[in-house]
Amino acid sequence: MQLLKFKPTVYKLENVKTGRVFDDAGWTLSDPECEDPSLVRAVYDNTMFTPRNDLKGLYRYAEWLPVKRTLKKSCSPVTYKSKNLAKHLGLNNLYITFSGWNPKIGAKMRTCSFKETEAFSVCARLDKKEKRTLVVQSAGNTARAFAQVCSDNDIPLVICIPEDNKHDLWFTHKLNRCVKIVAAPHGCDYYDAITLGDKLAQDPQFFLEGGAKNIARRDGMGTTILSYIEQAGRLPDAYFQAVGSGTGAIAAWENAQRLAADGRFGENNMRVYVAQNTPFTLLYDSWKAGSRQLASISPEQGRRQAEVILAKVLSNRKPPYSLAGGLFDVLEQSKGDVFLASNDDIMYWLLQFRNLEGYDLLPAACVAVSALAQAVEKRMVDKDEYIMLNCTGGGTLAALGKGYILKEPDLVLSPDLPAEEIIAKVSELF
What we know:
Layout: E1 11-15, E2 21-22, E3 40-44, E4 78-81, H1 84-89, E5 94-98, E6 101-102, E7 107-108, H2 115-125, E8 133-137, H3 141-152, E9 157-162, E10 170-171, E11 179-184, H4 190-200, E12 206-208, H5 215-221, H6 223-232, E13 238-242, H7 247-262, E14 271-277, H8 282-288, H9 299-308, H10 327-334, E15 337-341, H11 343-357, H12 363-377, E16 387-391, H13 396-399, E17 405-406, E18 411-412, H14 419-427
Parallel strand pairs: 5-16, 8-9, 8-12, 9-11, 11-18, 13-14, 13-16, 14-15
Antiparallel strand pairs: 1-2, 1-3, 4-5, 6-7, 10-17
């Protein structure tokens, strides 16, 4: 049987703040006619949730992904109804959505992180004829995911990371030469990696992936709740996830709204609960202050806090919190809340989860489990409610059982260097 040629998904863009609907110019990250900070959302031609049985991996959800093509080796999140953790917590309808490596349940994300959902969506939004080089700024897991996807699909890429997080750059095979790693020196954090990438993108041969502003990133992450819906058949009453930027929670909320508009899965009464790893508590502090504005945090303070947390991917000093459609709006509209988990909490739930569910989680996912346990203890969730626990990564022990390769940075550059010097040095890599 001859496979049909993939047709790009049909959609328009909507300004969350103003409601203006307009065409995507190709890589639009914001509304050019709106000066106020606001996310733009994809408005898909197909308003019904329609999984594609003819497509593999993540592209099963292509009808709600802003993609022009499909890429090799994608995988989708896996959702199942928990027995052991649910019993331990006294819950009757706990669904775990896992993005990582656990072939026994069908989870085969080789980089062990749900950041693959972003990478396969963002990179498939790229035109095949794109001549510029994509720039991705990351604290670790995103770097690994984009590096793997771009390596497998011959997509030129520069990844900017903090050098202290280079241990996250492990791979089971050597990367394609089209992928280059640029690191901010020891002592720097994710915000410094963002600065490097911003300066690099001042040259027209490079362009930024866009982070939370990229509809492909958010809608790729939003496939977690699409996976949940296929198993539970209805929208959850409560959603739990650990966050650094909050983009995954925003994405889940956006897809919950689409699913509610579909009409077959109930109303969107989903309470969004997110969690951070103490002492990096920027989102917690901002939300608990009742403020749309982010709490004050100095670069030095942020770097110190990022250094000591186990879940280093949860240390974004520049999250999409305040702008229209950002995390503040999601928490307010969903009647949600923010939790905290310590390093000790992470270690406790890492061991407990492995004993109960049979596989290991990454530290960030353990923060989400801790938040759920706290919500149960505080009676913020009812035992019969439908709960989605978004476990955003795990399975590294099993995935690395046959060995791995660490990718060292190709360059280590201070974010304080002039943009011209950064551009010149990175250009030489190609």
